[in-house]
Structures are given as C-alpha cells and as structure tokens.
C-alpha cells in the first residue's frame, strides 16, 4: 500500500485528467457522433430497403394472383361466349330446318292439293263422259227398246264392248 | 517474508475461485452450448470482480 | 501504385514487429546508472531494479542505451520537459539536465532552488543543503516531493495515442460522408466500433439509454486497448500501468454513473425498500462503500495490476538471458528466454484486449445499474 501511494503521482493524475477529458470531448464530437449517426442511418436504410423488398415481393404476389384471377375470368367468359355462339348457331340451324320443313310441307300440301284438284277435275270429266256415254247409251237403248228386247241387250253389250272405262 | 506468505495465500484463494468459475462455466457451456456467449460474458465479469479483489489484497500487502 | 502502397505498409508492419523483439531485448539489456561495469545489468538485483524502474513513469524517452568502446554510457532517446510546482511557483527545464541520473546525485539549480531526481521522482532539496542525504530505508531526509506536471513518458504516450485515435476515427467518420462501407484501414475499425456498441454498451446499459454513454465507452475502450498494445512495443510505454492514469479513468466512470443515477438507483442505495428498518442504514453503508469506493477501486487496481504484472513478467523472462547465463550457457539461456518471452508476449496481446474489454464492460455494467428502470427488474 505504501509503495503504491509512493508511486502515485498527483501531477500525472491532473495532467491525464485534463488530457483524457479533452480526448473524450474531441472523440465524441469529431468521431463517435458522426460515426454512430452514419451507422444508425445505414442500419435503418438497410432495414427500410429490406421492408421495401418485402413489400415489392408481396405486391408481385398480389399481381400474380390478380393475373391468374383475370385469366380464369377471361377463360370463363370465353367459354360462355363460345357456348352462346354454339347455342345461337344451333338455334339458327333448328329454325332453318323448321322453316325448310314448313316450306316443303307446304309445297307437298300444295302439290297434293293440286293433285287432288286434278284428280277431282279428272273424275268430274270422267263423270261427265260417263254421264254423256250413259246418256248416249241410254238414248240408243231407249231407241232400241222400242224395237226389240234382245236387240236392246245386244246393243248394250256392244256399246259396253266399245266403251272401255278409262 | 510475511508479505510473500500473504501473497501466496491470496493466490491460492484466487486460484480456487477462478477454477470454480471457469469449471462451472465450462460445465454450463457443455450442457447448453447455445448459451455460450451469455455464460462467457458472465464468467468474465465474475472473474474480473474476483481478480479485482485479489489484486486489491495483493497491493494492500505490498 | 496500389501494390506498392501495400508493400510499403507490409514492410512497415514487419519492421515494427522485428523492431519490437529486438528493441525490447536490447532495451532491457542496459541500465541508466553509471556503474563500474559500464551500466550493464548482470545480477538479479540489477534486473529487479531495472524492471521496477521501467514500471514507473520516466522523465525522458530513452529507447535503449549502450556502452561505447571507451567505456562511456550512451543513451539513445530524447529528453522531455520537466514542469514542476515548486515552493516558488512553476519551474520548467529539460530532463537532459539530470544526465540520466536517477538517485539524486546530479543536482539542478533553477530560480535559486535545487532539484534532484530520485527513482523517477523530482525532489526539491531544502534550503541550505547541497546534496541529498538518505536515511537507512533510502528515504530522502532533506528533500520533499513536488507536484509534477511534467510532460513525462506517459503524457507523451497519452498525447500520441490520443492523436492517433483522433486521426483514425475522424477519418472513418469522414468516409461515411461519401460511401456506405468504409475502405482501407477504416474497414478494420468499423467492426470494432460496432462490437463495442452492440456487445458492450447496448446489452449492459439497455436499449433506452445506451446512446448517451457509447461515446465515453468507445473512447475508453480504444484508449486502453491501444495503450496496452503500445506498452508491448519497444517504446516501452507503461501508461495503463500508471495508477494516476487508471485512477483517472476509474474516476470518470464513477462520476458518470453517480451523476446519471436515477431516483430508484439512489433509493435502493440509501434506503433499500422491502428490508427491515434496522438493517437499512447498514445496507446503505455497504451499498455506498461499494458504489463509491470498491467499484472504482477495483477498476483502477485491476487495470494497473494486470498491465504492470504483464510488463514485469515479460521483462523477467527476457532477463533469463543473463540471470541463467551461467547455468544454461549463452545459447541455452537466450533460447529459453526467447521462447518463453515470445509466448508470454502473445498472451499479453490477449490480455491487452481483455483488460480494455473488461474495463469497458464493467463501466457499462455500472452505468447500466445506475440508469436501469428498477420497476421493470423487480
């Protein structure tokens, strides 16, 4: 203890006190403040950059999700449109078929009607001819009857032989 | 002469203490290697306190 | 150009390392005293006095000394100014006037006062006496010590390292203005700064308060560390082994944690809550003694003792070269001394860092105790 106290130099103590105070003050002012500030700035900068990158990544993900959604929607829409188009064409074909059928049936009907008419007309003509013939036969029959019954029959037979229906 | 005997006693005591600190710290590290940093810091602080005590005693006797 | 610069730097470092080992050995080989054998150190006692002399502060900066062919003692180094507060005010002269005498034989007269240097201390000789007389315990009887503000070797060391630190770190600070990541030597300093901030200041003081004290802790850390390392060079600084300097550092820490202590800190120290009334004053005495005396005392003694002990061990191991010369032979003694001192110097490099770390760490811990929010801790 005694040697220790003997070694202790109060003068050096005072000098080093002053020098150290000056050193601490100068170091804090010219070195540590700017260094620590810049370090903190850099750290917060890195932190911000990381956060920004994370945000960008999230945004990208969102965008991708949006894209997928849009794509899906577009596909659905396209499908719907295709279906609609198909429906319309089917409809059109059906309508056209119907129309065609209608037209044909009408044509057929018309044809049938005209055939009927012709037939009717033919029949009417035939009837008229038959009637005329009948009247003619009847006339000749009546004329013959007056003479002979056998002759009458012969006559009828003869006429009938001549007249072939149709 | 008596100073030297005293110094020897101090060194024995400090040696036992430091051995305890170091040994226990090693055991702790072996048991939980993930706490190495914390254990080392605590070990150094305690060793420093012990060292201060031992040096104080040594120089009181000088 | 760049390669050339690097080569120069490398050579510089290499020469410093080489000079370290060579210089240390030659430095301890000689002695300042003028003795019959030309001041050579051969005996155990001479080695001891030389080492004790080295541990102390000195008034001149001697690198090494040797004996010329004519038997004359030559000292390589330079004198430093002595500034003392004598009985008649401030007196200053160069230390070369003592002619490297350290036992009060050379007397310098200034302003009608007589001064002598005994064991690296300047004494003023009482009026009427012409020479210093000693009693049987080698204490001067007719002279007294003075308040010594000299620019001693330690002061030179503080100034040198102070300017070095200022230069290094202000350059590092300047680099941040132009770039994000420093280059060159500053790149080495940056992680050290970050280490002190993130491993010492932040965890021990706490996220809320650490900014205020980081500047002090950084200064102290680098000051102690670089001066410890400087002590291992042949320049032979023993600044951090001076009680005055370590005491100064310890008092700074004491003042800082005493001034910045919050209400809870003082409350717990003076009137500990939750303890029986009768024990409170006893506890207060213990706590006050711990905070105001034991803590700074342990800080100052630890650093001083570790560095002084380191110097003593290194120099003693180097002294093996001559103390064991007779029993081991020149080669054996030199080899043993080289191997041992090499390894102990390596350990001392580690100790240099460790002591700086511990001083800063404990300072941070004490400051952290003073500013901590006890409401959270309890």
UniProtKB/TrEMBL annotation, chain B:
Keyword Secreted (UniProt): no
Annotated GO CC locations: plasma membrane; proton-transporting ATP synthase complex; proton-transporting two-sector ATPase complex, proton-transporting domain
Keywords per UniProt: ATP synthesis, Cell inner membrane, Cell membrane, CF(0), Hydrogen ion transport, Hydrolase, Ion transport, Lipid-binding, Membrane, Transmembrane, Transmembrane helix, Transport
Purpose: Key component of the F(0) channel; it plays a direct role in translocation across the membrane. A homomeric c-ring of between 10-14 subunits forms the central stalk rotor element with the F(1) delta and epsilon subunits.
Pfam families: ATP-synt_C
Alphabetized GO MF terms: hydrolase activity; lipid binding; proton-transporting ATP synthase activity, rotational mechanism
Alphabetized CDD domains for the sequence: ATP-synt_Fo_c
InterPro entries from the UniProt entry: ATP_synth_csu_bac/chlpt (IPR005953), ATP_synth_F0_csu (IPR000454), ATP_synth_F0_csu_DDCD_BS (IPR020537), ATP_synth_F0_csu_sf (IPR038662), ATPase_proteolipid_c-like_dom (IPR002379), F/V-ATP_Csub_sf (IPR035921)
Highest taxon of the lineage: Bacteria
Family: Belongs to the ATPase C chain family.
Statement: the UniProt record of this protein carries the keyword Nuclease: no
Domain V-ATPase proteolipid subunit C-like, residue spans: 5-57
Transmembrane segments: 43-61
Subcellular location: Cell inner membrane; Cell membrane
Gene3D superfamilies the record matches: F1F0 ATP synthase subunit C (1.20.20.10)
Subunit structure, as described in the record: F-type ATPases have 2 components, F(1) - the catalytic core - and F(0) - the membrane proton channel. F(1) has five subunits: alpha(3), beta(3), gamma(1), delta(1), epsilon(1). F(0) has three main subunits: a(1), b(2) and c(10-14). The alpha and beta chains form an alternating ring which encloses part of the gamma chain. F(1) is attached to F(0) by a central stalk formed by the gamma and epsilon chains, while a peripheral stalk is formed by the delta and b chains.
Principal subcellular localisation of the protein: membrane
Record site: Reversibly protonated during proton transport: 51
Topological type in the membrane: Multi-pass membrane protein
Organism annotation: Zobellia galactanivorans (strain DSM 12802 / CCUG 47099 / CIP 106680 / NCIMB 13871 / Dsij)
Name of the protein in question: ATP synthase subunit c
């Amino acid at each position: 203890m005694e040697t220790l106290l003997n070694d202790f130099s109060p003068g050096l103590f005072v000098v080093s006190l002053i020098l150290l105070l000056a050193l601490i003050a100068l170091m804090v002012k010219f070195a540590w403040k700017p260094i620590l500030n810049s370090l903190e700035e850099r750290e917060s900068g890195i932190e911000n950059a990381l956060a920004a990158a994370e945000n960008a990544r999230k945004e990208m993900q969102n965008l991708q999700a949006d894209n997928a959604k849009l794509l899906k929607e577009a596909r659905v829409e396209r499908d719907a449109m295709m279906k609609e188009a198909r429906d319309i064409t089917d409809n059109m074909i059906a309508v056209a078929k119907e129309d065609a059928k209608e037209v044909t049936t009408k044509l057929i009907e018309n044809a049938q009607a005209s055939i009927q008419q012709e037939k009717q007309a033919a029949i009417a003509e035939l009837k008229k001819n038959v009637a005329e013939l009948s009247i003619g036969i009847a006339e000749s029959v009546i004329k013959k009857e007056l003479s002979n019954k056998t002759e009458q029959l012969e006559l009828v037979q003869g006429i009938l032989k001549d007249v072939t229906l149709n | 002469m008596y100073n030297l005997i005293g110094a020897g006693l101090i060194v024995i005591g400090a040696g036992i203490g430091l051995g305890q600190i170091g040994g226990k710290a090693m055991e702790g590290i072996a048991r939980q290697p993930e706490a190495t940093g914390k254990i080392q810091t605590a070990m150094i602080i305690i060793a420093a306190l012990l060292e201060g005590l031992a040096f104080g005693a040594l120089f009181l006797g000088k | 150009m760049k390669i050339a610069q690097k080569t120069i730097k490398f050579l510089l470092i290499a020469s410093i390392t080489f000079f370290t080992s060579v210089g240390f050995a030659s430095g301890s080989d000689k002695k300042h005293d003028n003795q019959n054998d030309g001041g050579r150190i051969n005996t155990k006692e001479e080695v001891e006095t030389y080492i004790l002399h080295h541990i102390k502060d000195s008034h001149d900066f001697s690198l090494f000394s040797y004996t010329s062919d004519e038997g004359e003692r030559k000292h390589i180094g330079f004198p430093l100014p002595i500034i003392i507060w004598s009985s008649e005010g401030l007196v200053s002269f160069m230390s070369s006037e003592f002619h490297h005498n350290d036992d009060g034989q050379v007397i310098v007269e200034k302003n009608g006062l007589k001064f002598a240097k005994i064991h690296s201390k300047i004494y003023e000789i009482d009026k009427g006496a012409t020479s210093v007389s000693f009693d049987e315990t080698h204490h001067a009887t007719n002279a007294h010590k003075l308040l010594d503000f000299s620019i001693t070797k330690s002061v030179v060391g503080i100034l040198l390292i102070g300017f070095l630190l200022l230069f290094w770190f202000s350059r590092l600070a300047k680099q941040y203005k132009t770039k994000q990541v420093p280059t060159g030597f500053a790149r080495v300093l940056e992680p050290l700064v970050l280490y002190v901030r993130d491993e010492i200041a932040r965890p021990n003081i706490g996220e809320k308060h650490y900014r205020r004290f980081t500047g002090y802790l950084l200064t102290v850390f680098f000051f102690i560390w670089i001066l410890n390392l400087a002590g291992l060079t042949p320049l032979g600084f023993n600044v951090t082994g001076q009680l005055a300097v370590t005491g100064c550092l310890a008092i700074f820490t004491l003042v800082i944690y005493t001034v910045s202590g919050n209400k809870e800190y003082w409350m717990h120290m003076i009137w500990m809550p939750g303890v029986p009334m009768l024990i409170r004053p006893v506890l207060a005495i213990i706590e006050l003694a711990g905070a105001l005396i034991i803590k700074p005392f342990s800080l100052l003694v630890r650093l001083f003792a570790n560095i002084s002990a380191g110097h003593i061990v290194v120099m003693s191991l180097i002294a093996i070269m001559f103390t064991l010369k007779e029993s081991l032979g020149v080669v054996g003694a030199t080899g043993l001394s080289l191997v041992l001192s090499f390894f102990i110097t390596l350990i001392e490099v580690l100790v240099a860092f460790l002591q700086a770390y511990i001083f800063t760490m404990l300072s941070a811990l004490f400051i952290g105790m003073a500013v901590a929010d006890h409401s959270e801790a309890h």
